[in-house]
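Agenda item 2: zinc ion complex prediction
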Amino acid sequence: MNEVKRHISIFDTTLRDGEQAPGAALQFEQKLLLADKLVRLGVDVLEPGFPVSSPGEFEAVQRISRLYPQVEVCGFARAVRGDIDAAVKATADAAKRRIHLFISASDIHLTHQLRMTRAEVKQRTREMVAYARQFVDCVEFSAMDATRAEQSYLAELVEAAIEEGAGIINLPDTVGYAMPHEFGEMFRFVRREARGAENVCFSAHCHNDLGLAVANSLAAIEAGANQIEVTVNGVGERTGNCALEELVMALDTRKDYWQLETNVRMEHLYEVSRSVSRMMHMPIAFNKPVVGRNAFQHESGIHQDGLLKNRNTYEIMDPVRLGIPHELIVLGKHSGRHAIKHKVSQYGIELNADQLNDVYDRFKQFADNQKVVTDQQLLTCVGEALDQE
Ligand code: KIV
Ligand code: ZN
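Presented output:
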């Protein structure tokens, strides 16, 4: 009998938090194009923008709300009436919708940014969650900078939001400060301490300042979070957010451990990643996990030899499943005879042992002076070697 696996809801904020990356602003049409790709990718919740922030943002959220009944569309708002009104209006035509409202929870933010006391923030949370709940069934409450907040106060704030009808509680690591064990512990603590926590869904929203956004999101899943907020390629403020493709592939590649499922259709990952990179003018690092140029390329002779015998020797994911055009072998100074023979045979040329040795010597001279040897250059070596005979 097939066991029903716990589902992790993928909340995509590429078009809101992702767009907050410096220089990443999208034009209206680009936003619509990316929304379409994200829906096809299979995200569960789409946060297409911040409706109150500009007429263009409002219109983009409104248009996306009308186009995609298959996803839940989320309107982002500060805990103030004007923002909530704009989010409610922009998402009015969505088949499934949510208002996502946030307020800071840490004393650092309360003192220096909001200039409010803890009691005032709690009161505002109550009023604004209740206000939003008049218009929509689903309210997500985010306690901004949760990881630097005093934890008992955080639990009180969450309890207040739940009492007023918030159905999703998001605990963001706004400045990417937490260590994975601390982040998981925060979820356990709040889920234990806040009354009503057993009736709501917990969500994690991690930033990547210390390179821990994916690890922290996984720690939150272990501690009971069922929704993870992500962006494609990890784009976002400063060093960005939890990368969608990394999180999804960590869950999928190690499903033996996690026993969880998402709705993401892996075969679209690569294409969506390239589109986001192109439209946001944010190049992808060559060594970026999952979608970087080098993620499935192998230069060393030992690795190439292993791969030619069995791909599992040095690959833990199948690039074909991710829609990645796959060039297994990159020739360079570390490459060996096996790889050269394999590459040449792709051009229909079979070399005997002497010919291969000759090509190999010529190839090495080439390779010492450049980073990679192109197929054309290899074929020149082959031509020269065969001409010598
Ligand atoms: O990083 C953050 O805290 C956020 C929230 C307001 C969800 O983007
Ligand atoms: Zn954020």
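Discussion summary: The chain has a mean pLDDT of 95.
Owner for follow-up: CH.
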